[in-house]
Specification:
Elements: E1 6-9, E2 12-15, H1 27-35, H2 59-70, H3 74-87, H4 92-103, H5 122-130, H6 133-168, H7 172-184, H8 191-214, H9 219-230, H10 238-293, H11 302-316, H12 320-330, H13 336-351, H14 356-359, E3 367-370, E4 379-387, E5 390-395
Antiparallel strand pairs: 1-2, 3-4, 4-5
Helix pairs in contact: 2-3, 2-4, 3-4, 4-5, 5-6, 6-7, 7-8, 8-9, 9-10, 10-11, 11-12, 12-13
């Protein structure tokens, strides 16, 4: 009931005016009209009037063509439309009739129910070309309506798929994918807001993943956590967590470097101890051989040999001053002069050797004392910089 031009039912548009009285709209018709949303695309209204003059000779032929269309006799309808065009080549209604016959549509208003547009159809183009403004607006209106309806259907399908994807999302990638779908139809319903929510949940998932890496408390896990958290910089407390990770990374690297240095020093000491033990064994053998040789070797040759070996033993035991005096007394015997030079280098190295005790708790700007030079009992140094367990010093 009600006076409406068209109503969509099961994807088909019907002319409802023929079924209602002419005494105005009933309450039911007002209810139906209110149900149809103003946001939904509406098909154009059919204009029964036309400015195109239909001659009496073609009017019966055109009427028969449209009767054939109503009966679904497409071939006969096309034939009679051709007859009309033979008499009136610019008759737009004849071209509309041929269009309806080609598309298997019984009435003009049923064009709105087509799935695809027909603006590339030759009969449509001729109909629009020769039509008056009213008929042209109606025909182009069907094209616009189909495009709008199809676009709404497309956006509705994407929207529904995005909502389902959002409902089952678990990882940040799942939420990002749903957000992209919503953003592709952001003008449809609340798609823009749902896209924002999906991106927020994706960031939350990434943030939780970064915090989970932090809980492992290892160097590699902190490095990985920083990489994850930096991808959502600015989101909630991601930046604060990343800074905590960087501090932990610095501390763990310093600890690891200190352990490495300590291990290398321990290995070096053990290696030197083993070498000294081996050399002492060799030295005992040499001295024993020298003691036996005292019986047969002239006394004038033995003293330099004994002194040289004794000086070598003292040098290996770290008694550099005594060793230096003995090598120096030997003069040019063997490589005694070279040994004196080596002892000088060892003395110099000993003067500038900085132990852990000297650097324990030292800060930039501190004054420390260690080593000696010439007659000075000790040297004073200023700490200029500290980096990676090493200090840059300047003597005063």
């Amino acid at each position: 009931e009600g006076k409406m031009s068209y109503y969509l039912c099961d994807t088909h548009w019907f002319d409802a005016s023929r079924y209602v009285a002419n005494d105005g709209m009933t309450e039911l018709s007002r209810l139906v009209v209110s149900i149809v949303s103003s946001d939904e695309p509406q098909p154009p209204k059919q204009d029964g009037e036309t400015s195109h003059r239909i001659s009496p000779s073609v009017a019966p032929l055109l009427k028969r063509a449209y009767i054939f269309l109503e009966d679904g006799e497409w071939a006969s309808a096309d034939v009679y439309c051709e007859k009309v065009l033979d008499l009136d080549p610019e008759n737009p209604h004849a071209y509309v009739g041929k269009l309806l016959a080609e598309l298997r549509v019984r009435k003009r208003e049923d064009l709105a129910a087509l799935v695809h547009t027909f603006d590339d159809n030759a009969n449509y183009k001729k109909a629009v070309r020769f039509a008056d403004e009213g008929l042209k607006a109606e025909l182009t209106g069907y094209i616009e309506y189909i495009n709008e309806r199809n676009e709404l259907e497309r956006m509705s399908e994407i929207y529904n798929r995005a909502k389902y994807a959002m409902s089952i999302a678990y990882t940040d990638g799942d939420y990002r994918a749903a957000a992209l779908m919503f953003e592709s139809v952001k003008t449809y319903l609340d798609s823009e807001e749902l896209a924002r929510q999906c991106n927020g949940r994706a960031n939350d998932a990434i943030l939780n993943s970064g915090k989970a890496r932090m809980a492992h408390h290892t160097l590699d896990s902190y490095i990985e956590a920083v990489r994850i958290l930096e991808s959502i910089s600015g989101w909630k407390d991601a930046d604060e967590c990343a800074e905590v990770c960087r501090q932990q990374i610095g501390e763990l690297r310093e600890q690891k470097e200190a352990e490495r240095i300590e291990r290398e020093e321990r290995e070096k000491l053990e290696c030197e101890k083993a070498k000294r033990k081996t050399k002492k064994t060799v030295m005992i053998g040499i001295l024993a051989a020298v003691a036996v040789a005292l019986i047969t070797v002239p006394c004038i040759v033995l003293p330099p040999v004994i002194k040289y070996e004794k000086a070598t033993s003292l040098m290996e035991d770290g008694e550099l001053d005594k060793a230096y005096d003995m090598f120096n007394a030997l003069g040019d015997y063997k490589d005694s002069a070279e040994k004196c030079g080596e002892i000088e280098e060892l003395r110099l190295a000993d003067r500038i050797n900085v132990t852990k005790e000297h650097l324990q708790g030292v800060k930039i700007g501190d004054q420390i004392e260690f080593g000696r030079y010439g007659d000075a009992e000790s040297l004073e140094w200023t700490v200029l910089d500290i980096k990676d367990g090493k200090a840059l010093l300047l003597s005063r």
